[in-house]
Amino acid sequence: QVQLVESGGGLVQAGGSLRLSCAASGRTFSSYAMGWFRRAPGKEREFVAAISRSGARTYSAEPVKGRFTISRDNAKNTVYLQMNSLKPEDTAVYYCAADPHTYYSASQNQYDYDSWGQGTQVTVSS
């Protein structure tokens, strides 16, 4: 398994931006598709965005399309989530996760992900 550590969360006003980072260690980072998920208070964990092993393919959930961008730097063993035009409903704990099973795309199914970070809190005030 790979170890994942998220950073970059915080408190931001609506309309603002944050960039989350997820640093990986332990195994070859480029062997994993990567995803971001979030859990809002009182809700189930949901898919946010995912990126293929090479970074060539990305996928985003409808609520964040056009606002959030996922990217990765395999040389730095890091995946990013750039979040713009933040809304109060984006408030959640954000988790990054690693998927060793998917080769040429990236899964939106959390059960395909074997390794998870501890999460980072994002709070958007209105």
What does this structure look like?
The strands form two sheets. Strands 2, 4, 5, 6, 9, 10 and 11 form a seven-stranded mixed β-sheet that branches. Strands 1-3-8-7 form a four-stranded antiparallel β-sheet, with no helix packed on it. It is mostly beta strands and 126 residues long. 35% of the residues are buried. The chain is globular and about 40 Å long. It contains no helices and eleven strands.
Considering the chains and any ligands shown, give keywords for the structure.
globular; 11 strands; 7-stranded mixed β-sheet; 4-stranded antiparallel β-sheet; 0% helix; single chain; 126 residues; mainly beta
Report the count of strand segments.
11
Major sheet, described briefly? 7 strands, mixed
Q: Stretches where pLDDT falls below 50 for ≥5 residues?
A: none
Shape, per Cα inertia axes: globular
Helicity range of the residues?
Answer: under 10%
* Mean pLDDT over the residues: 96
Distance between the termini: 39 Å
Succession of helices and strands: EEEEEEEEEEE
Number of H- or I-type helical stretches: 0
Radius of gyration, whole Å: 13 Å
Give the DSSP E fraction (strand runs of 2 or more residues).
over 45%
Class based on secondary structure composition and strand pairing: mainly beta
SSE blueprint and pairings:
Blueprint: E1 3-7, E2 10-13, E3 18-25, E4 33-39, E5 46-51, E6 58-60, E7 68-73, E8 78-83, E9 92-99, E10 115-116, E11 120-125
Parallel strand pairs: 2-11
Antiparallel strand pairs: 1-3, 3-8, 4-5, 4-9, 5-6, 7-8, 9-10, 9-11
Task: Describe the structure concisely.
This protein is mainly β and 126 residues long. Helix content is 0%, strand content 48%.
